[in-house]
Design a protein that fits this description.
- This protein starts with 22 loop residues before the first helix and ends with a helix.
- It is an alpha+beta fold and 584 residues long.
- Helix 18 runs antiparallel to helix 19 and helix 19 (521-528) packs antiparallel against helix 20.
- Strand 15, helix 4 and strand 16 (300-307) form a beta-alpha-beta unit.
- The chain has three domains: 23-157, Immunoglobulin-like, CATH 2.60.40; 166-204 and 378-497, Alpha Horseshoe (Serine Threonine Protein Phosphatase 5, Tetratricopeptide repeat); 210-373, 2-Layer Sandwich (60s Ribosomal Protein L30, Chain: A).
- The strands form three sheets. Strands 1, 2, 3, 4, 5, 6, 7, 8, 9 and 10 form a ten-stranded mixed beta sheet that branches. Strands 13, 14, 15, 16 and 17 form a five-stranded mixed beta sheet that branches.
- The chain has helices spanning 23-30, 229-232, 235-249, 270-291, 309-317, 324-333, 337-346, 348-357, 378-386, 394-401, 407-421, 424-436, 440-448, 456-466, 470-477, 486-495, 499-503, 508-517, 521-528, 534-546, 550-563, 567-572, 580-583, and strands spanning 36-40, 44-47, 50-59, 68-78, 81-84, 88-91, 100-101, 108-117, 122-134, 145-157, 191-194, 197-200, 210-219, 253-255, 258-264, 300-307, 364-373.
Length: 584
Amino acid sequence: MKRLATVSLVLSMVATMLVGCGECYEKMQKKQDQVQVTCVPEVLTLKGSTVEADITVTFPEMFFDEETILKITPVFVYGSEEIACAPKYVQGEDVVGNYTAISRFEGGSYTQHISFPFDKGVVGTLELRVEAKCFDECREMPDFTPWATIAVAKGISAVQSLAQGVGATPAVVEDAPVEVVEAVEVVEGKVTTDNNGHYTMSEANFERSSVKNAEAEIKYLINSSNVRKSQLTAEQITLFKEFVAANSAAERTTLGNVYASGYASPDGPEKFNNKLSEQRSKTGAKAMQKELKGIEGLNYEIASYGEDWDGFKTLVENSDIEDKDLILNVLAMYSSPVERDQEIQNMSAVFKVLAEEILPQLRRTRFAVEATYAGLTDEEILEAAKKGCDCLDVEHLLHAATLTNNVAEKTAIYEKAATKYGDARAYNNLGVCYALSGKLAEAKDAFAKAEAEPAVAGNLAAVSLAMGDLEEAKKYLASADAEAVKATEGALALAEGNYQEAKTKLNGYNLAVAELCDNNIEGAKAAIAEVKGADADYVRAIIANREGDVEKATAYLKAAIAAKPELKAKAENDIEFYELMQTM
């Protein structure tokens, strides 16, 4: 940018000629345009919450009267407001005092560091208000009298305040699609970047298809594969039949194979038991086919598994048999079924309990079947959610909200999920939607109701930062996941003027702002290259203007204002465009 405040020479002086005892500095007034004043930076810049600068005033040879004292006060004037900094006193060589002495013959200079709190960019003027008095001729040391006003710098640049997610920003249009400044999709589980902060949305545990299953079994007498009629009238068999009948005809449902698996208890000869389990699978499957007669399209899969040592171990572990540890030790020590059976039968008292409580449960045919429900399509889910249908559970509602990029629609769906189910994820995501709409207070309330969500601390930090409460943002960041809140930490560092730290944690638009604040034009250009939108064009206009490309700066600024008319008022009071706006 062509800097606007290069003031190696006095820009303007308004002097009041003095009478009475002012002869000592009258000659100085006549040569006041020889005084040189420089300011670093040339354009005052907001850094963090303060404006800082170094002002150097140089007096030439044969200028400063030996008996004069000057009181020089830096004052920033904007509109009808002004901010005065601490004055600097300089004195001639004959003055008895402790001020900075300026030689009449050699001249001299001083540098004063100024700092004052500020929070915005404005067009204004930093000026030095000079007052003078004589030391020798006025023994009573009269009050200082106005001597000159020297313009030092023009306005305050507040590029830092362009950072998104810092300080309250205007709400977006409620029924407009979500405008994403950076190329980050607004979906659950990813960081959302927009004018009002960097937030993390919670994910739905949504599964489009669901699987239900049913099981049943019939038990046999020892060494038998005959199906007893009493076994087929048991409640579990009735429920199994009802499940198969209902799901074979249900819409969007696919019924899987009916499995019949035969088992034998691990007592007696292994070869005999293997044959017995095979017979049981066949007789069990035949009996179930009769029970399910009339239901079309069923497929059966028959298998046998011999002695059920795994089932035996599980039943023993879950039993209250006094010597179950001894039995389990046998299973661990011996892998051979024959040895296991022999060792257990040798424990006569233990085997009696097993024969009564455990082994009868293993003489069985087990039936199993699965029904897979295909679920609603995304279009059906979104339509039902928009209509406020009570047919959707919380997971479907959370998923439905991801199917639209419209802020108002997303908000309504999350409100439904939050109020109906009290789900922490729904409150968290509702808070993000409120933030996207500029409703920061409502967002903070919603986040407060989502305490169970891991993302909440980071989101509370982001909304606090967006509301301009930097200290509260720090408090929440302390308990947030570091990686999830990296962008918020970067925005906070940017707001506090810690540009180097900010640059390590930001990307896209905010990184471009941080690079500009750090006077790295090339870095800013690279960071903003892929970012779309009016705010990005406003930043591009600043970059072009600092490079002295007035034509490009004008084009970018016009594009930004056309897309976002409120930027015109901002540009008119932005020192970055002070000269440019005079030509537009």
